[in-house]
Amino acid sequence: MASEFQRAKLTTMFAAFDTDRNGCLDRDDFQDLAERWHRLPRVAADPELTAQVTEVMLAWWERLSAAADRDNDGRVDLDEILAMVDRPPAMLDAVNATADAVFDAVDEDGDGRISPAEHHRLVNTWHGRAIDTADVFEVLDRDGDGFLGRSEFALLWAQFWISDNPADPGNLLCGPVPAARA
Q1: For residue 122, which of 109, 112, 107 has the smallest C-alpha distance?
Q2: Which domains does the chain carry?
Q3: Which residue, among 158, 154, 114, has the nearest Cα to 136 in the 3D structure?
Q4: Fewest C-beta in 10 Å: which of 48, 98, 127, 169?
Q5: DSSP string covering the chain, please?
């Protein structure tokens, strides 16, 4: 069962992924999400990375639908997402496999590091709109060097998808999590 924190985090991500705002996720939403990512400069300039991003996004849909589409209607609603909240730790390999593709897409200048500006574009790309990320990067950048390296990002990525602990910095990777309902 989803905690209030998980509910708040997953509701925010569900809204970001539901590109047509119909209250359900389907393959078209993930294709639209891939199209958002294709507009990132590094992705747009690299056909191989474009194909990799599309593959990652559509693979997420396949995994999600296989795990959560209880009524086999080709759509996943928020209740179905929340019902499978305990499964991501068992899907750690799948989560980790996506971290490199996302890192490469966001590392706009290809320097092997994600800057605060690149991170801000990641958040805006996920959500499809501008999100206030003030002070978020400082929490993510645990070593204080002003960047997120690949291994640092991978840990944060896994925390985002798996953690139920609001204190884990990775929960902020895709932007602030709204306060859970009281």
Answers
A1: 107
A2: 4-172 (1.10.238.10)
A3: 114
A4: 48
A5: ---HHHHHHHHHHHHHH-TT-SSEE-HHHHHHHHHHHHTSHHHHT-HHHHHHHHHHHHHHHHHHHHHH-TT-SS-EEHHHHHHTTTSGGGGHHHHHHHHHHHHHHH-TT-SSEE-HHHHHHHHHHHHTS----TTHHHHH-TT-SSSEEHHHHHHHHHHHHH---TT-GGGGTTSPPPPPP-
Share of the chain above pLDDT 70, in %: 94
| Residue 162 CA, distance from chain mean position | 11
- State yes or no: pLDDT of 90 exceeds 70: no
User: Which residue type, as a one-letter code, is found at position 112?
Assistant: G
